[in-house]
Amino acid sequence: MERRSNYIERKTDYIERTAQSNLVSVRGKIGKPPVRQYGNGKVNYYSTVVEVKRGNDHVDKIPVLFSDRTIDVAACYIGKIVEIRGQFHSYNQRTGSEHHLRLYVQARTMFFPVERKTLPRNQILLDGYICRPPQYRKTPLNKEITDLLLAVNRFHAEADYIPCICWQKEARLAYSLEVGSHILIRGRIQSREYTKKLENEATETRTAYEVSVMNLKSIEPVPENENGIAFLKKLM
């Protein structure tokens, strides 16, 4: 009985730490009606898109997955402001000979603010490990950029692989780090459209998703008894 109790305590601690390594808070307008993705008869999961305005009037269109236990999927929510708490997940989708990394927000809670004049929100905190050599470059306007791929632990020994883009000071710091470096970041989820060249000179407009990094901290080693995300908040 004592051995089982210790196992449960270790498992609970692991779940809590994993949940804290990937935190998303989004507030924006629902842009599409829900579409059923899958279910088991008891719980069904639906996808939608939440539109969040940026300061430069650009709108980030963030894909969201949620269950029918979260909100009433039969109601019409198009254009309504919704507030979401959850995590940013990824999976590999195979199309023919191509593999695509798909990203979405898994909603844990969804609610509709009473106040109409609520400001948009788009925040994400990640605690993970660099899993690909950082790629440094400069834009035509001489802005420094570093692209990262961050592995963030999930339940059941899985991981989410999340592309991140760092700017200026954060770009220089990110480029100095090695594969396997443990970092904490604060940023926002952004979407951008790009043109993909296909066969026979055809083109297709696609949407890419990534985390635009506002703050980056290398945290090796993390102080004892210090939760990673709490440590990041304290440093900020």
Q: Would you write up a description of this structure?
A:
- This protein has 236 residues and is mainly beta.
- The chain has one domain (2-235): Nucleic acid-binding proteins (OB fold (Dihydrolipoamide Acetyltransferase, E2P), Beta Barrel).
- It is built from 3 helices and 12 strands, in the order H-E-E-E-E-E-E-E-E-E-E-H-E-E-H.
- Strands 1, 2, 3, 4, 5, 6, 7, 8, 9, 10, 11 and 12 form a 12-stranded mixed sheet that branches.
- It is globular and about 50 Å long.
Summarize the structure.
The chain is mainly β and 236 residues long.
CATH topology descriptor: OB fold (Dihydrolipoamide Acetyltransferase, E2P)
Our count of domains comes out at 1
Task: Give the CA-CA distance, first to last residue.
Answer: 43 Å
Helix content: 10-25%
Averaged pLDDT, please? 83
Overall geometry comes to globular
Count of discrete alpha- or pi-helical segments spanning 4 or more residues = 3
Give me the CATH superfamily: Nucleic acid-binding proteins
Fraction in beta strands:
over 45%
Structural class from helices and strands? mainly beta
Which second-level CATH architecture applies?
A: Beta Barrel
Low-pLDDT segments, ≥5 res: 7-15, 222-229, 231-236
**Class in CATH?**
Mainly Beta
**Oligomeric state of the chains present here:** single chain
- Radius of gyration over C-alpha positions, nearest whole angstrom: 19 Å
Taking the sheet with the most strands, its summary is:
12 strands, mixed
Care to count the β-strands?
12
Helix and strand element order: HEEEEEEEEEEHEEH
